[in-house]
Design goal:
Blueprint lengths: L2 H16 L9 H20 L3 H6 L3 H11 L3 H8 L7 E7 L2 E6 L3 E7 L2 E12 L2 E8 L2
Antiparallel strand pairs: 1-2, 2-3, 3-4, 4-5
Length: about 140
């Protein structure tokens, strides 16, 4: 992943990292599998319109930012936003407590918490020579 893209994620995830993420444990393969499982669960919830489950998969700062910017509870905000489906996970990059899941039609950024991997940003599109632009992100 380009340095500029990770810089954008770090800006969003810095508070997350400082407020309680767990150490990166498990083998590299186990961490990739866990990220893939979290991204797949997020997408399955989206496909099923299970916005409460999607909200449960969001990192705390992302959930807070979404509710604050929408002025309504997370599930209502997501229902109104109607995020596009991302499809199948094509690949993952894991760097310590941060990860990227590249899907067929979306890119998710995740951070590892004591409760598992949570989505920090979704609906992300790569831009040439610039950081990713994400529709759903933490503050």
């Amino acid at each position: 992943m380009a340095r500029a893209a990770w810089a954008a994620v770090r800006t969003t995830a810095v508070a997350v990292v400082l407020t309680g993420t767990a150490g990166a444990c498990g083998t590299v393969a186990e961490r990739h599998d866990a990220v893939r499982a979290a991204a797949t669960a997020f997408e399955k919830a989206l496909d099923e319109g299970a916005y409460d489950r999607m909200c449960g998969a969001l990192a705390p700062a992302t959930l807070e930012e979404l509710e604050q910017s929408a002025g309504r509870p997370c599930a209502q905000a997501l229902a109104e936003e109607s995020p596009p489906a991302g499809g199948a996970v094509r690949g993952t990059d894991v760097h310590g407590n941060q990860a990227r899941a590249v899907l067929a039609g979306d890119t998710l950024f995740l951070s590892r918490f004591t409760t598992g991997w949570k989505v920090v940003a979704a609906g992300c599109r790569q831009r040439p020579q610039r950081p990713y632009q994400c529709r759903i992100k933490g503050g």
